[in-house]
Prior knowledge:
Elements: H1 4-12, H2 18-40, H3 65-96, H4 101-104, H5 108-132, H6 144-167, E1 178-179, E2 182-183
Helix pairs in contact: 2-3, 2-5, 5-6
Amino acid sequence: MATSTDEVRTSTVPRSLQLPGLVLGVGMGGFVDGILLHQLLQWHHMLTSTNSDRIGVKYYAPNTVSGLEMNTVWDGIFHTVCWVAVLLGLGILYSRVTHHRRRVWTSRVLWGWMLAGWGLFNLVEGLLDHQILGIHHVRAGSHQLWWDMGFLLLGLILLTGGHLLQRGGRPFDPDAPEQNGRAL
């Protein structure tokens, strides 16, 4: 049975920025992937490798109008999931940070968790979509395995770098007094 001292102690501990940071990082990492690789560089879309996938999804050739239309729809679904992740991350962050909200955006802890979330996105998306399902690759062609491995390596670097960045930051306490815009 918890004592009143234990109850007070747990209620005064600041809530972690880990979950909102990770969710925001996953969403933002997805946006970078979708905007840079899908739209600007046009290296792949969600279903560009379904002619050789491992789950039997119908192939939509990206060099035909109908194939590009279907890939664009699936890219849009992908971006919608990214958008929902960002909104969810912001909602969780807003619910956890009730005071000094401006100060949270300078927190190494939040940015570290966001980088870790981006790395987590790369690792999950790279393993699931590129390797296990095979529905698309970073850049299809003779060197696609190298591109896919580079994507996974980037994910590992972001995850590790984000973890190290957040460990080097001060825990964010929204109730800590400020002096000249900085926590004491």
